[in-house]
Amino acid sequence: MSSLKTQLLAGERCDVPTLEWYNQHIPVPAIDHWWQTESGWPMIANMIGVETLTIKPGSVGKAVCGYDIKIFDEEGNEVEANQQGYVVVKLPLPPGTLLDLWNDSPRFKAGYLEQFPGYYFSGDGGYKDEDDYIYITGRVDDVINVAGHRLSTAEMEEVVASHPSVAECAVIGINDALKGQIPLALVVIKLNDEIENFQLEHEIINIVRQQIGAVASLRNVVIVNRLPKTRSGKILRKLMRSIADGDQFQIPSTIDDEAIIDEITEVLQKHEIGTFNKNNTLTN
């Protein structure tokens, strides 16, 4: 440890409870950042080789040189500080970023350039604070609609992760016949923790109600041995959502272990969740 100066993070965003745990155990700064395969290199970071910024829990840093990053509302207007919206990048993009999709320019334009003309649409949501620190809240398609209320699964994940028995978690929106969608929390508990699923579910549901409100409608929390991830550490939420909803899916080529698909399926079957719940007519 004496030679370690900085811990650089990758894969999933670093939530506040994880950073707090890290700071209690590791005596070197944890540097988060944000980028996409399409960008080729970080778009938001704490550029320690240029100037080390104060670390703000939950933030991935500030825009890297070469990127003009803004937060837009649905109409393409820049929002005020601490207001959530769509993360976009002003064109042109710097060298090293994607130029097109192979043999499919119309799809490239539709997916990245048409929603906000003059800007690259990242597909992520987030916000800036008054100091221009940027916070990524997750993919915009991870926002779920519960009886007309739009809820961020990233916000719920942060609350679920605050439970002392939870090592990591994922919250996804699954189809529901009554409310359209409802959240489902899948959690991995800490090593040697022996909490029962029923107790954990009860406690997490209460925490979410206290911090977000009953509108969140979280009523299912299941313990899993592990979460499906890519080899770079990104949680495959869309895959779990497809399993729970009974939709067809392709196994991502980047998945670290295909066997986990059967593991997740067995847990959902055991708890009769989503398409495995005979009373949920929307998924049957």
UniProtKB/TrEMBL annotation:
Domain called AMP-binding enzyme C-terminal: residue spans: 155-234
InterPro entries: AMP-bd_C (IPR025110), AMP-bd_C_sf (IPR045851), AMP-dep_synth/lig_dom (IPR000873), ANL_N_sf (IPR042099)
Pfam short name (any one): AMP-binding
Family annotation (Gene3D superfamilies): 3.30.300.30, N-terminal domain of ligase-like
Ranges for domain AMP-dependent synthetase/ligase: 2-90
GO molecular function term, any single one: propionate-CoA ligase activity
SUPFAM superfamilies in the record: Acetyl-CoA synthetase-like (SSF56801)
Family in the record: Belongs to the ATP-dependent AMP-binding enzyme family.
Protein name (record): Propionyl-CoA synthetase
Organism (species): Flavobacterium gillisiae
Lineage: Bacteria, Pseudomonadati, Bacteroidota, Flavobacteriia, Flavobacteriales
